[in-house]
Amino acid sequence: MTxxxxxxxxxxxxxxxxGTVAFxxxxxxxxxxxxxxxxxxxxxxxxxx
Amino acid sequence: MSSPETxxxxxxxxxxxxRAWMRAAIAILVVFAISVTIAGFMLGIQLPTTEQRVNPQTxxxxxxxxxxxxxxxxxxxxxxxxxxxxxxxxxxxxxEVPAGAEVNFYVTSTDVQHGFKIQDTNVNFxxxxxxxSTLTFTFxxxxxxxxxxxEYCGLGHAVMFGxxxxxx
Amino acid sequence: xxxxTTTTPVYELTKSDKRFIGWHIFFAVTALxxxxxxxxLQALQLAGVDWYPNIDFLFIEINGVNSYYQGLxxxxxxxxxxxxxxxxxxxxxxxxxxxxxxxxxxxxxxRVGFWMMVAGLVVAAIPLLGNQASxxxxxxxxxxxxxxxxxxxxxxxxxxWIEGLGFYITLYRWRKENPDTRTPFITLAVxxxxxxxxxxxxGIAVEVLALILPLSFGWVGGIDPQLSxxxxxxxxxxxxxxxxxxxxxxxxxxxxxxxxxxxxxDSLARLAFWLFLLLSVPLxxxxxxxxxxVPSGWKYIHSILTFAVGFPSxxxxxxxxxxxxxxxxxxxGKGLFGWVxxxxxxxxxxxxxxxAGILFLFGGIxxxxxxxxxxxxxxxxxxxxxxxxxxxxxxxxxxxxxxISYWLVPHLTGKPLWKPKLAVASSWIYFSGMxxxxxxxxxxxxxxxxxxxxxxxxxxxxxxxxxxxxRVAIGGAIMWIGLMVxxxxxxxxxxxxxxxxxxxxxxxxxxxxxxxxxxTPVWLDRWKPWLIATAVLIILAYGPQLIDQVMGIxxxxxxxxx
Lengths: 49, 168, 562
Fold this sequence. Notes:
heterotrimer, B: 168 residues, alpha+beta, Immunoglobulin-like, 2 domains, 5-stranded mixed sheet, C: 562 residues, mainly alpha, Cytochrome C Oxidase, Chain A, 0% strand, globular
């Protein structure tokens, strides 16, 4: 544990969260698809003013 | 351990990848905000706003609420529809308007809170005693559109509905 | 790896503190067990199957009506208000003591607060079980419940405030003893949550004390329902963050340790919590997008502020996933997505929280849709809404609390977790049911199905809804099975005779941060600037409308029994 602690300051630099980037990128795609599909439903249901 | 003096000057350390994500997250939220702004303020898909106050106890003593229903303003082009929500029905429960006409809905309640949602349209709002809810809608397709109560109003809530008949 | 025991805990809670926290969990799980009984009945009712007559014996019959709505009220109050509040105050007590490594400053304050909450629960339970308060958990006036219902709620909320006061005094004492140390993250997180809750519940306190109780006692003849809604939703949205933030606290401050890693960024974890303090309250009008008595301009402002509070959640997504990836890589995880498999899926506590997070991805997407101004015309009061909040409070929160319970109950009782594999299974069963249920609820909501409605009785249900409503019933039943497995695991764990081997304890998993917390900027450990900014933002976002609505009050609506 002590040896790990000594490297802590660099640890974040050494660890590149590539998997996290892939994960959130996939999330963003799903988010945009779902949100805009509801937006399109709204547009198709007519104006209210 | 750093002393309080030096720690005052500690900058916020953010991993570069996470910093990029923070920017992306803000950008995504801005895209949504712009999209709803366009729909609301340019494409005419707006939310209800304040209309007028009424007294639910004396509401039906005088027009227009003493005789809710359809008012023709310009034949074939513009109609006002007054609907009173009550436990557990709407007055009137059938409304007839022509396709292509601008229809202004005015809805209020004489008892508890109700909902008013015309299926397959964007007309969907709360009905609150003391307040008049309003939205304007144009039915392009002839047919029958149910309006249903979407807020719990008591034991008979599930059977509370009416329908708009849109004539060609 | 199924149960993490140690012989050298960092800090041990006293027996009496453990028992005190244990009482919180006992009431929380009991409320959840009773409240969840109605869940599958509601789901079946949507699909046209009415089982309520079969459970008559559970109700104290007073006026003979045992309805869907009585069940729905009990489900909402016991699950969304009682299970959460009791679990959260218990978990927060633990996080304060264990984070600060010191006992509560004045334990009597917390004890008084807790037993006041219990008294409130008992008082509210009388009309709830007697069908005298079947007004649902939003209790919108002028629909009226028996006065005891409101009095009980007031006692629960005030009790939680008093528990919060106990936390503040403890934190203050600790600060005097440790002037130069960063507040431990887990403690800061739960205390920020409590402060946010106290600010937020001012709304509901005003609604109940100034508007509802005078009507209920017959002192006045009417109420202003629109103004009541505005005060209610001042509290109503931050309420969901009050539920959610303890789960976030666990995901940031505990889950990385349980997964075998460290917190990716201490600074940003703290920043997220301060942003939740700042932004949780001034956005309540997004629940009133289609109210007639709120100007659309203010609705628009609150819509934008609701997008803003999405930011700390998106930040949480990255930091928590990065912390998990760090853990998974240390465990030998490979690949762009393959590392996920290297996480300790055999640990019931970890699995519950990972599945909570996965469901919350979709809960978050739905939440952003709910924030989106005119989009509400499609979504408002449809089945989409309960579909959404079952992914938040009933998934992100409840599954995380399952996960926390799987180490917390052994920690408090000194007994080993009963059947760790069943603990893993409970979350998977619940998760599967929730996927089916929530997908169907969202879909049928988009098709126009209303919420809070026994659709089996509704005359306007088109045939295209039926398949989805059937899936609602199936999903709801599966969720209930998963939940009962959870209850069985924690109940047997707590009440079994078997104890952990002499000298062994299950320690509280407190994650270290990759970055030394002492290197976190001081402004992320200071209350004053954040509290001032919070107050200013609330005044700007709510002040003008509140003044308008209060000045224009028209108490013309008499009360109605549901």
